[in-house]
Amino acid sequence: MNQQHRDERARIREAMDRLLTGQATTSNGSLTVVALAAEASVHRMALQKRHADLKHEFYERVRKEARQVPEPEKRLRATVAKLKKTLANKEAELEELRRLVTNLTLASAVLTAGNGSSAEPVPAAENVIPFRPTTS
Predict the structure, then answer these.
(1) Residue 99: predicted pLDDT
(2) Consecutive 10-residue averages of pLDDT for the chain (136 residues)
(3) Which residues contact 18 (CB under 8 A, 6 or more apart)?
(4) Which distant-in-sequence residues (6+ apart) come within 8 Å of 57 by Cβ?
């Protein structure tokens, strides 16, 4: 680990302390990775990639010390709830469609059976001209 890497980690840890105590100097003070990166003067992707362990440590400290749920977890929970509701609606719609298919199949069977058992031909309407076989 080189000196620049150690300096970045030290700045990130100091920024964590400032954010958790509510004494932010360069960020908006929110308890997010974006604010942590701004407070530590490091690029957000450096925090996400090179210092992922510090990002996880920050979120753990947010849970324990600030007794808050981190923003990404809140968004994820909201998305999960929305998806569960959508899934329940789709399952109800699918069940309704299955019932409809069953009913239509039964109705088709009744109509088909009713046409075949009739001894008398169905009378044609007045405006219907029956086809006659062609004679050659």
Answers:
(1) 95
(2) 85 91 86 89 89 90 83 88 96 96 90 66 67 65
(3) 24, 25, 39
(4) 16
pLDDT value for 40: 92
Q: How many CB atoms lie within 10 A of CB 121?
A: 6
The contacts of residue 25 (CB under 8 Å, 6+ apart) are 18, 39
Apex 113 CA angle, 109 and 118, nearest 5: 155
Burial class (CB in 10 A: 0-12, 13-18, 19+), 37: buried
| pLDDT score of 90 | 97
**109 vs 101: CA distance, rounded Å:** 12
CA torsion, ordered 58, 62, 63, 67, to nearest 10 deg:
170
Residues 50, 79: Cα–Cα separation, whole Å: 28
| Both tokens assigned to 59 | 């979120």
